[in-house]
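This part of the workshop introduces the protein records we will be handling. The structure tokens are whole numbers drawn from a learned vocabulary of backbone shapes. The record below serves as our worked example for the rest of this section.

===
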Amino acid sequence: MSNITRRSFIKLAALAASSASLTACSWSRVRGANEDIRIAIVGFRSRGLDHIDGFSKVKGVRITALCDVDSDVMAKGVALFQKRGQTVETYTDIRKLLESKNVDAISIATPNHWHSLGAIWSVQAGKDVYVEKPVSHEVWEGRKIIEAARKYKKIVQAGMQCRSSYSLAEAVEWVQAGNLGKIKVARGLCYKPRASIGKTTGDQIVPPNINYDLWTGPAELVAPHRNGSFGPVHYDWHWFWNYGNGDLGNQGIHQVDICRWFLGEKALSPRVFSIGGRLGYIDDGETPNTQMVFHDYPTAPLIFEVRGLPEKKGSKKMDHIHGASIGAIIECENGYVVIPSYTEALAYDNSHKLIRKFSGATSHFQNFIDAVRTRKVSLLKGEIAEGHISSALCHTGNISYRIGAKTSPAEIRERIKSDRDALPTFNRMAEHLAANGVDIEKENLALGVVLKMNPAKERFIDNDAANALLKRNYRKPFVVPDHV
């Protein structure tokens, strides 16, 4: 480290004494209390702007570089920093960025299919990483980020800001202490309006400002087949399996993570199935806009619901449960907890009387920087192992759906009647679709395959079709390595 003072050296020596296991690469990253942490933001058309804003508010952090494959997005980013009287290095290719000696940490807010590869490459280049949710596009590659973080002794934070909510942490502890009795069901909700993205008639032209080869990265290189309000490339990639994971992996991972946190489960569920469809309109999207996922945990079922259609046809309002449309409900023997946002939890008894309120959260970006500065992985609220499991729960639910088949409502009801609260959840889904003019007797929902998993190996039991979707075929040279 250049220009090191005697005082800084003493501080570094103290840190080294308490962190004897740090590699030489990690040693070079320990920074004194008065030294800036230099961060690069990768992907900032949308969520990445929040990264810029969040890290800009953390004392002792400098954003020194920006990376984006869209030159128009880059120009806006540069202009933003120019208004602040600041300059930043600019990159189109993350590989070139990772060669920079002016960057200590990488913050990744690209589309999902780039998350794991970007994180692994960054760690291998000696950088700490903040990576957006879901941390992976497939189950297998999430485990590879963990392996890389452990091998290179790097700080890797998953962008699940709910984990930096002290109100939720207090609520989890309170519920797990038995104050409402045993948990019966942990339910996540994503009732979020998703209009049709339209129907194209063929390949769409990529705008010249986007480097589409780099944008596609590890995914299959195909022409875009979408052209909604965000154009042929941006945002609507969420609804295509080649790049996204539907609203389950987009919004839903936050609520899935909260539910798993309350349940205290640390591994993938041993049994999972999903039911859903893309109904109410015909468009280019592939992922379901209506979905339920049942994770059969020993503690209690974790049930997640996606609804992209409104409460009824023609309405602009969304359905809700106990006032929550996007949130989680922890149903217990003697009451329930409503989590309508990541900064609040409300506990009720069975007569619906509010008996306890939890509120408040700290900055997830600040938490990452605290861990980077001290080299203490234990400080991380959203450590990559937690991010991997919650992301993978979304993926296994989607895998069940993808290898399922359209099935009559009567058969679906018969098949799920023995699973706790699955049938009432399905019946509410059917009522919701009927209110939107969808007749599931004529437009059958897909009943996903009931999948059993070995949580320790993160492999499905006796189902080759499901296991084939745990890992994608990567496009060279954008390959997540078998050995990190």
Summary: The CA atoms of residues 41 and 52 lie 7 Å apart. The first helix runs from residue 6 to 18. The first strand starts at residue 37 and ends at 42.
